[in-house]
Design a protein that fits this description.
Layout lengths: L2 E6 L3 H12 L4 E7 L5 H8 L3 E5 L7 H11 L5 E6 L5 H9 L3 E4 L4 H13 L7 H9 L3 H10 L3 H11 L4 H8 L3 H15 L4 H10 L7
Parallel strand pairs: 1-2, 1-3, 3-4, 4-5
Keywords: DNA-binding, Phosphoprotein, Transcription, Transcription regulation
Protein name: Response regulator
InterPro entries: CheY-like_superfamily, NreC/VraR/RcsB-like_REC, Sig_transdc_resp-reg_C-effctor, Sig_transdc_resp-reg_receiver, Tscrpt_reg_LuxR_C, WalR-like
């Protein structure tokens, strides 16, 4: 089955460019387009896309609120990849914190765009660039540190979280730690449950905001 994608951007040229790039791939299908975040929830309910490629800044409803609306009202929700012009965008970080699964620059090369969609759809690795890690670290607070301490990760779970924060996939973590793939999946699930995180992105944000890991 192909990866189905909903494109959400108020610029028709951006949507056309993304559609052309993605539909050139045999395993990706663009099933719909929207010009504003206000249209996302009904379109997601109708089309049930695997991935929503969502602009962050739109006139009626921005990508942050649209992400929250999808996650609040659609079950199971699609993967959400925020798309933006600026890498060091606080809006992007807020969208990731709200529950988006990954990040893509509009100026990315076609191969990077395709890779990003496949990565987000697979859900076992991370699109979380260095500049956003810096933002997460600077937003650190006592609440995040207390939550991390309360999670009481085991030594192995802590090491798995560190590898997740590096952006490694489950297979890459398994190779790095000399573990089986199923064992890594079990540890990842335990980390998410203990941190109360919806997905890997939320867990990594918690890791940086708490100071459990630091950029660099």
């Amino acid at each position: 089955m192909p990866i189905t994608v909903l494109l959400v951007d108020d610029e028709p040229l951006v949507r056309a460019g993304l559609r052309a790039i993605l539909e050139a791939q045999p395993d990706i299908e663009v099933t719909g387009e929207a010009a504003d975040g206000a249209a996302v929830v009904p379109m997601v309910r109708q089309l049930r896309p695997d991935v929503v490629a969502m602009d962050v800044r739109m006139p009626l409803l921005d990508g942050i609120e649209a992400t929250r609306a999808v996650l609040r009202t659609v079950q199971p929700p699609p993967k959400i990849m925020v798309v933006t012009t600026f890498e060091n965008d606080e809006y992007v970080y807020d969208a990731l914190r709200a529950g988006a699964d990954g990040f893509l620059l509009k100026r990315a090369a076609p191969a990077e765009i395709v890779h990003a969609v496949r990565t987000v759809a697979a859900g076992d690795s991370l699109l979380f660039p260095a500049v956003l890690r810096e933002i997460a670290a600077h937003r650190g607070n006592e609440r995040a540190r207390a939550a991390m301490e309360k999670a009481a990760l085991t030594a192995r779970e802590a090491e798995v979280l560190r590898q997740m924060a590096r952006g490694l996939s489950n297979a890459e973590i398994a190779a790095a730690l000399l573990l089986g793939s199923e064992t890594v999946k079990t540890h990842v699930s335990a980390v998410l449950a203990k941190l109360g995180a919806r997905d890997r992105t939320q867990a990594v944000i918690a890791a940086y905001e708490s100071g459990f890991v630091t950029p660099g």
